[in-house]
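Hello again, I could really use a second opinion on something today. Take your time with it, there's no hurry, and the full record follows here:

___
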Amino acid sequence: MSTTAPPLRTALPVHTRLEGAVPDVERAVIEPILDDLERLKRERNAVILAHNYMTPDIFHGAADLRGDSLELARLAAETTADVIVMAGVHFMAETAKILSPDKTVLIPDQRAGCSLAESITGADVRALRERHPGVPVVTYVNTSAEVKAESDITCTSSNALRIVESLGTDRVLFLPDRYLADWVASQTDVEVIAWDGACEVHERFTAAELDDLRAADPGVSIIAHPECPPDVLGAADYVGSTSQMTAWVREHRPDRVVMVTECSMADNVAQESPDTDFVRPCNMCPHMKRITVQNLRTALETMQHPIDVPADVAARARSAVQAMLDAS
């Protein structure tokens, strides 16, 4: 069974999609922009793919397809649209282009980057291979195309453990997130050699913060993303990817929950879980928040900014991503 939220049906009227997701005072501004987006998508034969960290006006209003990084990778490969607009960050748009080389892939703001993707280069991976000859390289999808191209297989936070164990080796190189690597290492007998990268959003959470939340509300459930530091994960009731956290809330229906991840995630899940009270410590990703309904519209109006991945890099990166999809 899929753990991702179902794709949004954009055939629903704009006002229906936004109901309960966006304050009424904002809807008067947003709805005409969404109407423009629907027209432009029809004209361009385009779809908008939205990550779970997008703001509710995008996630519930503008998106045609939505999910975590693994689901977006699959959807990018499967869509029949001519144009993909990525409501996410640059590495996600690159992954879509890698899997759909004949499609036009747009990123609305070129500054929408990622601290993890920027923590490592292709040259770094080559140097790691020299220091650890014969050890397979497992690369988190939160990386550039050139890093994926130097890797054996990619993974996401939802399938990292399965991917590591699927290789049948005693050791793996795991990059670039050291906290996700630590989490995987705690779940397996495979030796995990980690790169020293981190997500600037998840790294800011602390166990003391969670202890204070639990002291104030002993009955609250705390669920955390594995990009968080080990002491944070140790203080959580459940650890999982964004889609796994969504499924956990849907299945367990807690009275109150803290989602220890980017704060728009709770906004989006809350819309689908009205009986749960979401306690919201908010660490915001500045890169994700560069994507807005306004620049989504501009991207389709002007066809900016197209993603280009050199053919040789794309071919090698595609092999690593496809290996993950085949193993998932």
Remarks:
- Residues 14-112+288-302 form a domain with the Rossmann fold fold (CATH 3.40.50.10800).
- Residues 65 and 300 are 16 Å apart (CA to CA).
